[in-house]
Amino acid sequence: MAVYGGLQVWVAVLITVALIAYLAVFPALFALIMRQLMLAHGRAAVLLSPLAWVASEVARGYVSGFPWALLGYSQVRVLPIAQLASVGGVYGVSLLVAAVSAAVVFAASGARVRYRYAPLGVMILAVLTIAVWGSQRMASGDLTRAGEPVRVGLIQGNVDQAIKWDPASAASIFRQYVRQTRQAILAGATLILWPESSTPFMFEEDPGGAEQLRTLVRQARVTLIFGSDQVERNSPARLYNSAFLLRPDGSTGGVYRKIRLVPFGEYVPMQQLLFFAAPLTEQVGTFTAGERAEVLPVNGHPVSVAICYEVVYPALVRQFVSAGSQLLTTITNDAWFGETSAPLQHFEQASMRAIEEGRYLVRAANTGISGMVDPYGRVIRQSAIFQPEVIVDDVRFLQASTFYARHGDIVAIASLIATIALFLWPRRYVQ
Questions:
Q1: Looking at 57, 196, 266, 357, which residue is catalytic?
Q2: Which of 57, 164, 258, 310 is catalytic?
Q3: Is 205 a known active-site residue?
């Protein structure tokens, strides 16, 4: 907010503190619920904590609009366990992790009951069963042999955020992307992804730049998906963060408008109250949210594009698959994060979507991490951060759906309903 958003440091600190305090409401809500349950049901109520924790995660995702770093993501590289996401989504994995923790706490609580260690035994058995099932699911590899293959090229331009919108740098940025794209074409790529807002101009507002792109795909007979801002000139005019698809004949095959906007990056929530944060959106414009989970046609196959942190929303990605998406793509610009853990977190959260939906996922990021993930969450290719890269490899269009893709967040909804019911249950604990 200070480095890229044009805010004074003290204002950026104030907004950050306010955001932290707001997000802290959700673990505080979990603590409040657990206090009530402990008073009502005694020490055994700790065994209900997984339900309350998942309920708090659901609330954070749907109320705050920021479902980042859910507990279940801790298992995204423990792939046999992570396969549970194909059934219960990331919330199902969160429930499992919290349940193991609750069983350990209950066993160590000193409760004078005969079944003190029984929950821990049950959870050990459950984890072993899931691990064996998950290992067998991965070993079968059915999804990696199904569907039609497609060779994908990912372009990581590594454009410095400080010069990204500098008119003097626009020509050199565009030449770099074209040069990297030709490299991917020479490696056999037929579907190419550029990152979010990658064109140093608005595609529909710059006929010269647009024609150069159309000529590029026509000459190579490839499909190109790229990010560019889009203006809808109504009254008032509206600005969208969009993804465009160019067909091999150079025509526009479709446009997806970003639905989940980044607070304090693409819009200022409660703008009248937080008027002092207005310079943030003055730097890039106040965006309007898209309305539909559009899929784009790639050689007769519907493909989805999640823009930036949209990929951390399980329900949104599931909407894409319900609309027919046979390949998950995501384009982003994580330059804002610098050399922190956030780019790795973002990539790993995207990887969980591949497991949930039973789809290949490909990701183009301006400064990284770009990469490809198979339907079991295994990373096929992955770039380093803050260096230009071109990644080319084969993935597949898939149609088979997982239990989660068909039925959604049953675990999350059940946890929320159960938590509300338990919280309202008037029974009191008697020593």
A1: 196
A2: 258
A3: no
CA separation, residue 92 to residues 58, 70, 99, 103 (Å): 11, 11, 10, 17
The active-site residue, picked from 57, 164, 294, 308, is: 308
Check if 211 is active-site. no
**pLDDT above 80 (res 171):** yes
Q: Let me know: does 310 contact 260? Beta carbons within 8 Å.
A: yes
With 0-12 / 13-18 / 19 or more C-beta atoms within 10 angstroms meaning exposed / middle / buried, residue 361 is buried
pLDDT the model gives residue 294: 93
Mean pLDDT of 84-111: 94
Cα→Cα distances 267→63, 238, 263, 270, 343, Å:
17, 12, 5, 9, 21
Task: Tell me whether residue 164 is one of the annotated catalytic residues.
Answer: no
> Whose CA is closest to 244, among 280, 288, 205?
205
Dist CA 409 CA 66 (whole Å): 17
Question: Do 302 and 328 touch, CB atoms closer than 8 A?
Answer: no
**What HEC string does 218-241 produce?**
HHHCCEEEEEEEEEECCCCCEEEE
- Give φ, ψ of 306 to 5 degrees: -95, 130
pLDDT at 431: 43
Q: Where do the domains of the chain lie, and which CATH numbers do they carry? A: 9-142+408-424 (no CATH), 147-399 (3.60.110.10)
Q: Is 330 helix (H, G, I), strand (E, B) or coil?
A: strand
At residue 381, φ and ψ (nearest 5 deg) are -140, 145
Per-residue pLDDT of 234-272, as tens digits, reads: 778 889 999 999 999 999 999 999 998 877 666 666 555
Q: Provide the token pair at 169.
A: 């740098």
Q: Residue 331, SS3?
A: strand
pTM, to two decimals: 0.91
Model confidence over 387-399: pLDDT tens digits? 999 999 999 999 9
384 DSSP assignment: P
Give rounded-to-5 percent helix, strand, coil for the chain.
50, 20, 35
